[in-house]
């Protein structure tokens, strides 16, 4: 997963009668690609905005921090283009779909045909009246990925509403889950899809895209004041629902998904520490 660090804004957090002020990176654009290695010839690209409006910075192919160009992107009118790298980039036909029910603007770019082997590609983004900026680059291998990930048994599922946030924290809901194992024949899953409970899982049931942390835990919501909530959580306590039920599946870079696991959170009696 590559993250574009955007314009910094100053946030203040009032905690226990004290004011903590510090700089947070502004809303980011996340392109879900492996940190290294080749993508399969049937790869698809998922893109998540932290907000409806973000400023994206293009960097050189060598990955340095030098800013080549920048543009403000609006999720409501953004367009994405996939092209082969080169002095005269060749556009690769692809469809772009925005997920209708995710809290954060979420898009998936799917090539209309198999990608060329051992080829450098780039993904550009542009909104009306702004220059196009390259938001991601990747290289293909020489094979498709026909294998779906597997998701082990759910080990833990906890729900909390932080009531006394510390420095750089915020009050709010946090749902944590951990599975016994997550594996794939080709490459490790890129992210997890979080769906409403339904017989068929598709774009109409998708609520959020999240990626696992280094310890393998999957977290919805955050105690970090600089990060947005991925999910609209139900009202907690006696006036709200007793439980929150979701279906979760692991997805790889070709869009292959594991059989879903059902997760139930106790939202009537949330913990107070996340």
- Can you tell me the residue ranges where pLDDT is under 50 for at least 5 consecutive residues? 1-20
SSE order in H/E notation?
EEEEEEEEEEEEEEEEEEEEEE
User: Span between N and C termini?
Assistant: 25 Å
Overall geometry comes to globular
List its salient traits:
single chain, 274 residues, mainly beta, Immunoglobulin-like, 2 domains, 5-stranded antiparallel sheet, 4-stranded antiparallel sheet, 0% helix, disordered N terminus
Describe the secondary structure blueprint for this structure.
Elements: E1 2-4, E2 8-15, E3 18-25, E4 29-32, E5 45-49, E6 53-58, E7 69-74, E8 79-84, E9 90-92, E10 94-98, E11 106-111, E12 120-126, E13 133-139, E14 150-151, E15 154-162, E16 172-179, E17 182-183, E18 191-195, E19 206-210, E20 218-221, E21 243-251, E22 261-266
Describe this structure in words.
With 274 residues, this protein is mainly beta. It has two domains: 2-139, Sandwich (Immunoglobulin-like), CATH 2.60.40; 150-266, Immunoglobulin-like. It is built from no helices and 22 strands. The chain has strands spanning 2-4, 8-15, 18-25, 29-32, 45-49, 53-58, 69-74, 79-84, 90-92, 94-98, 106-111, 120-126, 133-139, 150-151, 154-162, 172-179, 182-183, 191-195, 206-210, 218-221, 243-251, 261-266. The strands form seven sheets. Strands 1-4-5-11-10 form a five-stranded antiparallel beta sheet, with no helix packed on it. Strands 9-8-12-13 form a four-stranded antiparallel beta sheet, with no helix packed on it. A four-stranded antiparallel beta sheet has the order 19-18-21-22, with no helix packed on it. Strand 12 (120-126) and strand 13 (133-139) form a beta hairpin. It is globular, with a radius of gyration of 20 Å. The relative contact order is 0.18. Mean pLDDT is 85; it is low at 1-20.
